[in-house]
Amino acid sequence: MSLISLIVPFLMILITMIVLFDSAKNGITPTPTTSKEKTAALKISEPFKPDSIADLGAGFGTMAFPLAKQFPNSRVVAYEMAALPWIFLLIRSRIQPRPNLTVRRRNFMKEDLSKHDLLYTYLYPKAMDQLQEKINHTPVILISNFFQMPGWKPSLIWPVESRTRYSSSIYLYRRNG
């Protein structure tokens, strides 16, 4: 039996265990934004010209990198806690450098989000509840993929069709606190 035939199954099991552990800890598996959702979110964000953007739960950077490209004069912070997406983000940031993009392995719920002009999320209902509690009295522009912010009325709902899953929507919230 060759060394490679031993290493490959071990690595696959290790990666699976890391994903399962992170999913249990964070409450969700990494779910990339589709190209149609990305296009809609970028179109919605165009008029705002933010100084600082936070991608909350950035995953593999499906939105963080395009946001950094679209807003080269803005500071973009990609928050990600799951190990594999975070490692991927770090590698990708070396291969496709964006001088205005910072990757952080931090829990954004413990960060001061008021320093960002625009927040992008693709979270899940429990995390949206927690985020709502955190930023409820903060002036914010929030773009949320798929999940609505509980108790908030969206300024815009952009329906997005998808072949890979149910149709979704991108929600824009503009709040003065």
* Number of separate helices: 5
Q: How many DSSP-defined strands?
A: 7
Order of helices and strands: HHEHEHEEHEEE
The biggest beta sheet is recorded as: 7 strands, mixed
Radius of gyration: 17 Å
Major beta sheet, strand line-up? 3-2-1-4-5-7-6
Distance between the termini: 64 Å
Helices and strands: which structural class? Answer: alpha/beta
Give the low-confidence spans: none
Helix content: 25-40%
Shape: globular
Kindly report the average pLDDT value: 88
Strand content of the residues, in percent? 15-25%
Explained architecture:
It is a single chain. The protein is α/β, with parallel strands linked by helices and 177 residues long. The chain is globular, with a radius of gyration of 17 Å. The protein is built from 5 helices and 7 strands. Helix content is 37%, strand content 22%. It has a 7-stranded mixed sheet with strand order 3-2-1-4-5-7-6, with helices on one face.
